[in-house]
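Changelog note: in this version the structure field was regenerated for every chain. One regenerated record is shown below for reference.
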Amino acid sequence: MTLCERHPVVPADRLVAEMVPPPRFDGVRFATYIPDSGRPSQAEAVGVLEGFAAGLAGATASGQGSRRWFRRAPAAPAGPKGVYLDGGYGVGKTHLLASLWHAAPGPKAFGTFVELTNLVGALGFQQAVEALSGHVLVCIDEFELDDPGDTVLVSTLLGRLADAGVRLAATSNTLPGKLGEGRFASADFMREIQGLSAHFRSLRIDGEDYRHRGLPDAPAPYTDEEVTEAAGRAVGASLDDFGDLLSHLAKVHPSRYGAMCDGVDAVFLRAVHPVPDQNTALRLVVLADRLYDREVPVVASGTPFDRIFSDEMLRGGYRKKYLRAVSRLVALARDSETLVTRD
């Protein structure tokens, strides 16, 4: 099969029901997170999140988290209405966020920032508020501010949810009060960001990328012939030329990239090359996230994944996004090593 031939359609009414942790995180729990002994902030974060989850269970038992259609909800408890996990890529933030989701009572939702904005786009703002306001917990992974409009949109949405008594949890590579730095200088947007940060207790998680601890850099790429031959032997494989795939991504809404990967067990790419522009790079970041969520190994020829983003891109406002994508693509490339036989 080829990803370039896929144009999936995802009905809007499936979006809320599918807001759960990706398959990679089905089995994660607080007990399966292994803190780095040299980074006490990691163990501290686990303890805080376990306490937060226990508080959610207690609130649900007392009726605070239940849906109320015909009467006013009681005032929400004082203090932060959520937790915010800040740290670099690969320190286990998504693992911890998914563990919180698993430990929390329902109804609950888990999605990336992009998925949340897509939900609002599909349902409309008020319907999205109504769909989520009866939840006990909403988790937002990889909080991003790629678009000023999305900043205002999500800030307003989360504010409405917090006022309704919904507890919030989020991850990002930047503290809430610093979101947007290096991208937007507008005082209006900074005020919007600062207002959003007031909803969260920030937890800093220090550490190095666990995917690279004691491991080599990106594996050496294969030849085009090796990629083609291996794809022919693999079950559930897709085979595409990298340039064609980048062009195809521009024709598919990023909210559908996950559906585009349905049924794909391994991705084979020929002639990987540096990404030509920022819009293309940002689309590739979303695809990398969806492949990583689904644990789909990637076999590639051409440029190694740790060299596909230019130095200029890595110095810009989306630096952390690109570094996350490199980290995840390199991990998926390592996962694919058993799929290719070299003489």
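Spot check on this record: Confidence is low (pLDDT under 50) at residues 65-79. Residues 288 and 329 are 6 Å apart (CA to CA).
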